[in-house]
Specification:
It contains 16 helices and 21 strands. The radius of gyration is 23 Å and the shape is globular. Belongs to the bacterial solute-binding protein 5 family. Keywords: Signal, Transport. It holds the Pfam family SBP_bac_5.
């Protein structure tokens, strides 16, 4: 789960599109014909990031591309991880029914077309969906890839023992029919679900190989091949898996676009580099061809690298201070409210992010259409007001300057991903602000694979109280997966352990609407409910920083899901030899 974005005025975004990372429309513009006009409108301003070096020469096949991967992946099986860096590697290993591009638009991949009401792929009530696959598809081992694999994936992901990263859409499936030729599958949902296509988009939500996994207990799939998948469908397949060091993927000759000469590269080496300092050293030594999600505090050093090109674009993710609702102290809404008022968001944006952020206090930034709410009133930065809220709620300041009430102290653990310099600055700033209102924060950080795995999913108060990370919702603004009651672990990814039946009703409403204007009205209600209940405190929308070496081409990170590796099948290097 990574980054965040907010949007000022639509006109401002059009003007500043080179600073927006996760651009374009997140909404299912492909759902119904009505949305085509909106899609054109959104696309016109969709931020594309800083363009890479123009090169009119023909792409060359060959080369080994080295990418520094900040954070160790925790699983490389579709729908087995919420971690962005795992999903990025998934994007090279697996082909999904649909895939996104650098502007955030969805296109058919293994599927022949995007289903619509006009072509009969979607029923008018949004409860029946038909996906048709291309004929002759193969897995990396040469076995047929067809609708049976899609059916098997749905059944596996809804098996609790698999512990899928996302189940919201798949739990709604009541039944599915596979055609006799195994080239199409029709899903029947228990209720309307507008984001259904987004639930099958990009490598992290690609089909699983039935023939390879059907004899295995779902609980054993990740245990057996979690970081070393043997059968894949994407442009690459696993060549060497060395957890903690590197993951090398090599060209898959059975890739569905292999006849078009893709992928261009022979291999990609993803080096697990847990330190931003090490990434900078690699770039200075010229031993990496690319790196994503860079430390903005090192921007002057990156700019000094004459043999690299920097890419910046606004993320689709929101950076949030997440609150573990399992901690009984947080049942007091006054504590949550005081914390929200005590955070100086402007200082975070200017000091920690060096201006590489956009104001945002909810979970939908400017990349979402619908989703983003321009007129939202955020909690004010008001230390005096925050102190009054706690005073009125009976939280008394002790001799150690920490507030207490009924034997409970306002002292919490505050964690984030380790070795992230700008997040460490966020922590220091928020720690200092909270001290001004009598809240003590103790900081303990964890490696990404631990943080997004057992630490957050464990939900243990006193260990996980407050945690900072960035999140986004792939290609649709539906946010039920992060906040719905039925998504609390171990069955989902509601890592705030927050439950509000009224909010659940709003999620159901927006999921049943295809009209963007009507859907936006429901999202506005969701935003207000979140600001009233505060399951998390929105900090800002990230503007991400990436880099690639001159002599490498088509490096265009996208706003969602695969992120850095969007279009990796089309990466290529001069003369078929990558420079690193």
């Amino acid at each position: 789960m990574q980054p965040d974005s907010t949007r000022y005025l639509f006109a401002l975004i059009c003007k500043e599109d080179q600073m927006v990372k996760r651009p374009g429309s997140r909404f299912l513009t492909i759902l119904v014909a009505l949305s085509s006009v909106l899609m054109l409108f959104a696309s016109a301003c969709a931020p594309q990031g800083t363009p890479t070096t123009s090169n009119t020469s023909k792409p060359q096949r060959g080369g080994i591309w080295v990418d520094d991967l900040f954070n160790e992946p925790d699983a490389l099986i579709p729908n087995a991880s919420v971690q962005t860096f795992a999903n990025m590697v998934d994007g090279t290993l697996y082909s999904a029914l649909f895939e996104g591009d650098a502007s955030g638009q969805i296109h058919p991949a293994l599927a022949t077309e995007l289903p619509t009401q006009q072509n009969g792929g979607i029923s008018s009530d949004l409860k029946t969906w038909k996906f048709t696959l291309k004929p002759g598809l193969k897995w990396s081992d040469g076995q047929p890839l067809n609708a049976d694999d899609v059916y098997f994936s749905w059944k596996t992901w809804t098996n609790p023992s698999f512990a899928a990263a996302s189940t919201v859409a798949f739990r709604l499936i009541e039944s599915a029919d596979v055609s006799s030729d195994k080239l199409s599958i029709t899903f029947h949902l228990s209720k309307p679900y507008a984001p259904f296509i987004a639930s099958w988009t990009d490598g992290a939500l690609a089909p699983l190989p039935k023939h390879h996994f059907e004899s295995m207990n779902p609980a054993d799939i990740k245990k057996t091949e979690g970081l070393d998948p043997q059968v894949t469908s994407g442009p690459f397949k696993m060549k060497e898996s060395k957890p903690g060091d590197h993951y090398t993927v090599v060209r898959n000759d059975n890739y569905y676009l292999a006849s078009q000469g893709l992928p261009y590269l022979d291999e990609i080496v993803f080096r697990a580099v847990p330190s931003q300092d090490t990434i900078l050293k690699d770039l200075q030594a010229g031993t990496a061809d690319s790196a994503w999600f860079l430390d903005v505090t090192k921007t002057p050093s990156y700019k000094a690298l004459s043999n690299y090109e920097i890419v910046t674009n606004p993320s689709a993710s929101y950076e949030g201070l997440h609150i573990n609702s399992n901690n009984p102290i947080f049942k007091d809404i006054n504590v949550r409210k005081a914390m929200a008022m005590a955070i100086d968001r402007q200082q975070l944006q200017q000091v920690a992010r060096l201006g590489q952020a956009i104001p945002l206090c909810t979970d939908h930034g400017p990349a979402y259409h619908p989703g983003y709410q321009q007129d939202l009133q955020c909690p004010p930065f008001d230390i005096a007001g925050a102190n009054k809220v706690l005073d009125d709620a009976g939280w008394k300041l002790g001799s150690d300057n920490v507030r207490q009430k009924g034997g409970q102290r306002l002292e919490f653990q505050y964690s984030t991903t380790a070795n992230n310099r700008w997040r460490e600055k966020d922590q220091a700033l928020i720690q200092a602000d909270f001290a001004k209102i009598g809240i003590k924060l103790d900081i303990t950080n964890y490696p990404g694979s631990t943080f997004f795995g057992p630490f957050l999913k464990g939900g243990q108060p006193g260990k996980y109280d407050l945690a900072e990370w960035a999140s986004s919702y792939t290609y649709d603004p539906d946010d039920a997966a992060s906040f719905a009651c039925n998504q609390i672990p171990p069955h989902g990814q509601n890592l705030n352990f927050f439950c509000d039946p009224n909010l659940d009703q709003l999620f159901q409403q927006e999921q049943a609407i295809s009209d963007p204007t009507q859907r936006q009205q429901v999202f506005n209600q969701i935003h207000q409910a979140m600001l009233d209940k505060l399951p998390f405190i929105g900090l800002y929308n990230l503007i991400d920083l990436e880099i690639h070496k001159k002599g490498t081409h088509n490096y265009k990170p996208g706003p969602f899901a695969n992120s850095e590796t969007v279009g990796a099948a089309q990466w290529w290097c001069d003369n078929g030899k990558c420079p690193a």
